[in-house]
Amino acid sequence: MITEFAPAKVNLSLHLTGQKADGYHVLDSIVCYVDIGDNVSITPGRPGELKVNGPFATDLPSANQNLVIKAANLFGDIELSQIILEKNIPVTSGIGGGSADAAATIRLLSKVYNKPEPSIEKLISLGADVPVCMHKGIVRMMGVGEEIISLTPAPKVGILLVNPMQALSTADVFNTVKKKKNSGISMQGYLEKKLSSWFEWIGSMRNDLTSSAIDFVPEIKLIIDKLMACDGAKVVRMSGSGATCFALFDDFDLLVSAQNKVSKDCPSFWCKAGRLI
After folding, report:
1. Domain spans, the chain
2. Which of 31, 39, 44, 155 could form a cystine bridge with 139, CB 3.0-4.6 A?
3. Residues with catalytic annotation?
């Protein structure tokens, strides 16, 4: 069995800068990846359909609608082996789960079958976040997801992810945002060597979808408030269209303490500590 890790994708910021005539929203976002995620595996030579396991397996759509299968179908001329998806992160949670799974599937099949990766046009046909999920480190994503610039390797930073276990429709959140033309991201400071300056740079940004998401899931505000109260939290924000929120730490002991506190206060929430990769 050959396995490819599908790391969660976190929008450290998300500036909504416009909306195109076709309805697609124009974004400016700083993205990172964490050592928390799903796994996609195949056993070459063993045919079969998609098999899903893991704690969030039952929350996924039917196999033929799954992004893993849609990604595999981009390699139309190969005889697919059975694909196993281990689903470890919540579905529709704002941390790129389905897109990360699709990207991992493409990387895996490309390596196993020695095939080139599909064009960015084909990747974005699967979803706006799929192209950015093919990257690593700290990345700037612009446009509708097709403009991607790799900035730097990931700094040594811990992250706490918290989700209230309520699915949130990306389309609903985007469609109810009141102001859709906002300023983009200032890149002044992204090359700073000092970690404190990097935190200041990320902290100067925002997520323009937060208020809209809170209207649908008020628990998002509760999570943000709890994370902001944690000792050592340097930046606190919602990721993507929600409902997952994050806090960044440079002290990993304080990260563990924060995870313990939030897990105790909100036992029904999904709460995972990790690091940027």
Report:
1. 2-138, 154-275
2. 31
3. 9, 129
